[in-house]
């Protein structure tokens, strides 16, 4: 319960409060400290790691290559850390986050098991008052959110949810002690990345597994493998150049890609290239041609290639057709698997198509689809997140005139550069909606935002400025620019969490910036070089 503001005194007066001790909050804290600011990070969990702290479901790992999904700011750090696999498993990423926290002595500035419930801007002092669930009240010049884009679990409100006598789990809120499914009858709802990673492992343990699929997803093989020392050494020897190469790519990753259209080559060559990228594995499959997310004709060639792969892997033709997505490949986020489709060849695993008849309610013993009851012991909801805005809007953030962020974003998020919001001065949103975030290497994105924010704070300190706020014109133009380029991409043409379509009643706005990492980098730099163009700075 939140203690009423009026009954509290300030427990601390700081330059900055940072919300969240994931990769964003940790690096932000380090930069603030290095630049001489008093700051504290507040974190709901009892340790660092953010998404990798909460998501502990079987098979959870990062489907971005570990040599790239890691901090780039310290060469010592990237030289000394040894990733064990091409794609790091969740426990190893969490161990890495803990290592970073210890190595840079970050824990002394992080307050764990403390949730930020409210932040209120005071126009008289140009400071934020931040209130925690533990009853603390902190005053800070800057309020910086590092809450992640996929951190608010979406647990569907199935009718009679409480009637179910078994266990209900959400992949994004997995019990720390793990779950043993041995001998159990399990239902998994959802076939996005989390479902696709966990289903093969849950199938290995369970007595029976029913997978409830509303929409089939495009999945390419991850081709995970141990990293050998020579491979690691080769990347480390060339890390700076490879990171720079990554930053020059729209995704922020360095990987092989082709700069021509799928329609520029004949059928045989197209097939050969798809096979090559399929064999190499991973999300870079979409880099095989440069127009897969622009041209519907090109996209369809890739989509049909993947459908044919599914038809070959899955033995039962009816199941194979249900698993073969009909829509645009890459519109929903592409998934990478290890043995996902093969799992449906196991006799105790069944796919239940709920595209036409949804889960109507839960019962004491399971769940109902139409007139059929599926009796299970455990239900795993791999049902995703209230993405991009969920974690921000869960806090009661009040800007100028007491206006809430919820009110301001009633029709969808509005920001300038995904960093600043008109009416919310001295607030910065690391990987906020309107920035590349989920479309780019998330770790490079948090480094980029934190560097920009601390650079801005230094400028404010040097110039004795007390307040920075995005202008309405800059915000409007950025929102319009986002809409225009979003509309030009095939990624906006289906129901996805990018658009908010997965959450009933959520405004349908394409939230991440799709213009690419390098263009976005230029936009950030342009703003700075033109005296923080798009922001109003004052004393
Ligand atoms: P997701 O992609 O949003 O998938 C959720 C699944 O649950 C979808 O299949 C969805 O169906 C289904 N669903 C949602 N509500 C439902 C309902 N009421 N009834 C039946 N089905 C329902 O969520 P996610 O798999 O957790 O992944 C979210 C994102 O997290 C990913 O796209 C990725 O960016 C990130 N992630 C990354 C990794 C990694 O390796 N880096 C791993 C896991 C997750 P519809 O498609 O019909 O909505």
Estimate the global geometry from the Cα principal axes.
globular
| Gyration radius, rounded | 23 Å
What is the CATH topology of the largest domain? FAD/NAD(P)-binding domain
Bound molecules: NADP nicotinamide-adenine-dinucleotide phosphate
CATH architecture of the largest domain: 3-Layer(bba) Sandwich
State the share of residues found in helices, binned by percent. Answer: 25-40%
Span between termini? 36 Å
Question: Could you tell me the mean pLDDT?
Answer: 96
Describe the structure in your own words.
- This protein is an alpha/beta fold and 539 residues long.
- It has two domains: 8-152 and 387-538, FAD/NAD(P)-binding domain (3-Layer(bba) Sandwich), CATH 3.50.50.60; 154-217 and 332-384, FAD/NAD(P)-binding domain (3-Layer(bba) Sandwich).
- The protein has 16 helices and 20 strands.
- The protein has helices at 23-34, 51-54, 75-80, 90-103, 193-205, 229-237, 239-247, 267-280, 296-313, 317-323, 340-343, 390-394, 405-408, 442-462, 472-487, 517-529, and strands spanning 12-19, 39-42, 110-111, 116-122, 127-132, 137-145, 167-170, 185-189, 208-213, 219-221, 335-337, 349-353, 359-363, 366-369, 372-375, 378-381, 396-398, 427-429, 467-470, 535-538.
- Strands 1, 2, 3, 4, 5, 6, 17 and 18 form an eight-stranded mixed sheet that branches. The chain has a five-stranded parallel sheet with strand order 7-16-8-9-12, with helices on one face.
- A hairpin with a 4-residue loop joins strand 4 (116-122) and strand 5 (127-132).
- The protein starts with 11 loop residues before the first strand and ends with a strand.
- It binds NADP nicotinamide-adenine-dinucleotide phosphate.
- Residues 61-64, 150, 156, 171, 189-195, 197, 214-215, 333, 354, 359, 382-385, 438, 497, 502 line the site of NADP nicotinamide-adenine-dinucleotide phosphate.
